[in-house]
Design a protein that fits this description.
Layout (H helix, E strand, L loop, with lengths): L1 H5 L1 H7 L2 H21 L2 H16 L7 E3 L8 E3 L4 H11 L2
Antiparallel strand pairs: 1-2
Length: 93
């Protein structure tokens, strides 16, 4: 993950994501990852997450769904920790 973020500018330009991942994982781990990515259950899990996002009307990121004491509001946007903490403190009281 770190390698993808650190090298994003390069692979974004040339599309060589595999090269970045290979360099990060090495010759032994990279083939294992490629094999795992061919597992059809991954596509099913992704499709399930997409369907849930559509059902919950997720249309931007970041977004949080807070489930506490029978409440489940949707919080849209990135918020600093103190703001989130205050929000959580208020909804659980």
């Amino acid at each position: 993950m770190d390698a993808l973020y650190e090298n994003q500018e390069k692979w974004y330009q040339d599309g060589a994501v595999d090269d970045t991942v290979f360099k990060a994982l090495g010759a032994e781990e990279y083939p294992r990852l490629k094999k795992l990515l061919l597992d059809p259950s991954i596509d099913a899990a992704i499709d399930s997450e997409i369907a849930l996002g559509e059902k919950r009307e997720v249309n931007s990121t970041p977004i949080f769904f807070v489930n506490a004491i029978g409440r489940g509001p949707k919080v849209v946007c990135g918020l600093p920790y103190p703001v989130l903490k205050d929000y959580f403190d208020r909804i659980v009281k």
